[in-house]
Amino acid sequence: MLLDIRNLTILLRNETSYVQVCKNFDLMINDGEICSLVGSSGSGKSLIIKAIMGMYGHDMKVTVDYFKFRDMDLTNLSVSERRKILSKEVGIIFQEARASLDPELPIGVQMRASLNNSCFDDKWYRWPFWRFRAVNNILHKVGIKNTKPVLRSLPYQLSEVLCQKIIIAMALSRKPKLLIADSPISGMTSTSQVQILKLFHSYIENNNGTLLYITNDLGPASNLMDNIKMLYCGQIVESGPKEQVINSPHHPFTQSMINAIPEFNRQVKVKMKLDVLRGDPPEFTQTPIGCPLGPRCPHADRECNTMPPVVKTKNGFFRCYYPLNMEKENESK
Ligand SMILES: Nc1ncnc2c1ncn2[C@@H]1O[C@H](COP(=O)(O)OP(=O)(O)OP(=O)(O)O)[C@@H](O)[C@H]1O
């Protein structure tokens, strides 16, 4: 097991008190696995990553029962000690790409500085010329062909998508053991999306890496994933292998995310209603007691006012009193 986190809880400070934005969050990722954390916008995905990496200030309180990375038990370490250890082996692609770059340094300087010695097999290759070549190579891989003007530019002179590609290139060039990518392809053209997803795939294959892929869209990256965790209001509502979650989802939230994947072989009638959940996710200050999806769920009943227990499936679990597709689950038992 590469990463093993049990019972992560996050509290966020608002004007008067602390609000719980994530509870009972477990994350187990095996070596070489591609695990995806899928949730709608505002469900707490980025906060979870910041909590795991120890990248937060006094406005956030994080507790965890157990935290292990590789063979290191980090549970009782201070936030800064944990951050120091993880930053050496974990690469992060943050959602706000431009904000992750230094606004005052040209891209070329930042990229050359980001290459650590693990990027070079031999001391000789650490010379500036080889660093320059390595930067060019990795930029080509993310689809930036005309590298010279990009390397001379400051972040504000480039589009957000170009900054995204640069951040991806920088993260991959350091060959991290675990790569965390937070909505890395949002806003890109479909050609670029495919290119980046293929790049992630070959990175994992060739470097024995592991990927935690964060997204609010099950569509484009679903081919890449081994395991999926569905997050709603800071809680995992369903988890399991990709085929199991996508082919026979048990939680209505998972079903709604699958319904949101565009499909063009269905007949679309004029004024046909979209297959979406009613309403919007609640604010964290108004998360319902019981099942967080309750007020929006078409199957909800009185029982859903208490938190559904974890129901184990073949290789995963879900939390719902009225699960869908249980015939398939029972057949497989
Ligand atoms: N520092 C902060 N102080 C107060 N609220 C915050 C802070 N950071 C995030 N939030 C709020 O917490 C909620 C979860 O934010 P988060 O960025 O984790 O969502 P997300 O699931 O990553 O969404 P998206 O996919 O849109 O990025 C949001 O409602 C956001 O406004």
Automatic annotation (TrEMBL):
GO terms for cellular component: plasma membrane. Residues 5-258 form the ABC transporter domain. Keywords: ATP-binding, Cell inner membrane, Cell membrane, Membrane, Nucleotide-binding, Transport. GO terms for biological process: peptide transport. This is Cationic peptide transport system ATP-binding protein. Pfam families: ABC_tran, oligo_HPY. It is found in: Cell inner membrane. Belongs to the ABC transporter superfamily. GO terms for molecular function: ATP binding; ATP hydrolysis activity. InterPro entries: ABC_Ni/Peptide_Import (IPR050388), ABC_transporter-like_ATP-bd (IPR003439), Oligopep_ABC_C (IPR013563), P-loop_NTPase (IPR027417). Signal peptide: none annotated.
